[in-house]
Design goal:
The protein is α+β, with helices and mostly antiparallel strands. The protein has three domains: about 70 residues, no CATH class; about 100 residues, Band 7 domain (Tetrahydropterin Synthase, Chain A, 2-Layer Sandwich), CATH 3.30.479; about 40 residues, no CATH class. It is built from seven helices and ten strands. A three-stranded antiparallel sheet has the order 3-2-5. The model has no long low-confidence stretch (mean pLDDT about 80).
């Protein structure tokens, strides 16, 4: 009985050592993540091998694994920029990005876990200032929103493309102008809209008047042609045809031959 504690203590210490060793030698990487291996006795950050993928991994207890999220992420950035005429503009943009998985070791070695603050956000601010500085407040407020968004994306992509970051999209969510400038732009836009509506009404009225003139001219031309074609002989022949048709009618009538103004029969009837 006296020997039992002497055997149990080393055994207990061995079990504790195994548990600690196992806990430091295993790592589980979750969905949408990847691990960068750091070897204390093997050259530091591993950059010439693919990062550790999702699932369970065994590593030496003296090494360390840095876990990164490699799925698409979103970062909202608010910034103050200047327009082409020097006015202060507040811009709110959302960036969609993810680290390049194949270069995750280099990203960790050169940029570190704070790569978003060290690389991505400064690049967006620089691109936004450069792009917005080309436009007037009126363009920023209305017609150029999509163009500005695309230009900021393209310029940011040029900066981060060799920084091991994949840029997927930049969305300009809001452009805030000084209140006085915003009110002036809105007044101008309303005036332009009213002017366009007035011009539209004028054009519509002119088209309607033109239509009436064309119809009137057409009727005048038709009457002129008809008048020119109705000679005395044609009118006399038509009168004779009408007289014959009336004479054939069963209705009671009186026909006075040669009593009309043109020598045509004059037909009198009570029906």
């Amino acid at each position: 009985m006296d020997k039992l504690p002497k055997i149990a203590l080393p055994a207990l210490a061995g079990i504790i050592f195994i548990i600690i060793f196992a806990s430091r030698s295993t790592i589980t990487i979750g969905s949408g993540e990847a691990g960068v291996l750091y070897k204390y006795f093997g050259g530091g950050v591993v950059t010439d091998e693919p990062p550790l993928g999702e699932g369970f991994h065994l590593v030496a207890p003296w090494n360390k694994v840095f876990i990164y999220e490699v799925r698409q992420q979103e970062k909202l950035e608010k910034m103050n920029v200047l327009s082409s005429n020097g006015l202060d503009i507040k811009l709110e943009a959302s960036v969609w990005f993810q680290p390049k998985s194949e270069d995750l070791g280099k990203l960790h070695q050169e940029k570190g876990e704070q790569y978003i603050d060290r690389v991505l956000l400064p690049a967006i601010r620089s691109a936004a200032r450069s792009v917005v500085g080309r436009y007037t407040p009126e363009q920023l407020y209305s017609s150029k929103r999509d163009a500005i968004q695309q230009e900021i994306f393209e310029e940011t992509q040029k900066i981060v493309d060799d920084q091991y970051v994949q840029l997927n999209e930049i969305l300009v969510r809001d452009v805030t102008l000084p209140p006085t400038i915003k009110d002036a732009i809105e007044r101008k836009l309303r005036q332009e809209q009213e002017s366009l509506e007035y011009e539209f009404r004028l054009v519509t009225a002119e088209k309607e008047a033109q239509k009436v003139r064309i119809e009137a001219q057409g009727k005048a031309d038709a009457n002129q042609i008809l008048s020119a074609s109705l000679t005395d002989k044609i009118l006399q022949d038509k009168g004779i045809d009408a007289t014959l048709k009336l004479a054939e009618s069963p209705n009671a009538k009186i026909v006075v031959v040669g009593s009309g103004d043109d020598g045509l029969p004059l037909i009198l009837g009570n029906n």
